[in-house]
Amino acid sequence: MMLIQTPVGAGFPSPARDERGVALNLEQLLIEHQEATFFWRVEGHSMTGMGIHHGDILVVDRALEPVSGHVVVAVVDGGFVVKQLIRRTNRLILRSAHPDYPEIMIDPEQELTIWGVVRWSLHRLTYRTSP
User: Fold this and answer.
1) Catalytically annotated residue among 46, 68, 96, 121
2) Domains in the chain and their CATH numbers?
């Protein structure tokens, strides 16, 4: 695979140039801690506001220390979820990124394990045809 060195504009077109590429290793790009990184397929729509869609592949790193604001894979009472971790003074919240899905307020008696930090979300583009 080749990575084109000149960025492609997502606003106005930039002048065309003779582009040269460099070798691109997706494993080096996506994975920082090889033994602690896992790929996980998303099911559901609660994180679409953060660009995580049903069917996406998440790159999850278990070696990273989760901090407030990170998107994490968590185990809540034995079930896996992907949510944004919010730490308040005396409470943990797992926040959805879609208005139809409520936050999960973690009660002290609940079982919670932060399984890993989501580093990337990979998804295929879907295209609509013109009406």
Assistant:
1) 46
2) 33-122 (2.10.109.10)
Report which of 48, 57, 113 is spatially closest to residue 85, judged by C-alpha positions.
113
In this prediction the pTM is 0.83
Closest CA to 54 of 94, 103, 98: 98
Q: Does residue 121 have an active-site annotation?
A: no
- Does 83 qualify as catalytic in the annotation? yes
69: left (phi over 0), alpha (psi -120 to 50) or beta: left
Among the ranges given (40-44, 69-73, 99-103, 108-112), the one the predictor scored with the smallest mean pLDDT: 108-112
- Whether 108 shows a pLDDT value over 70: the answer reads yes
37 neighbors 61 (Cβ within 8 angstroms): yes
Annotated catalytic residue within 14, 68, 83, 96: 83
Query: Per-residue confidence at 2, pLDDT binned at 50, 70, 90?
Result: low
How far is C-alpha 32 from the geometric centre of its chain's CA atoms?
Answer: 15
Residue 82 clears pLDDT 90, i.e. is over it = yes
Residue ranges of the alpha helices (H) in 24-72? Answer: 26-30
CA angle, 72 then 55 then 116, to 5°: 15
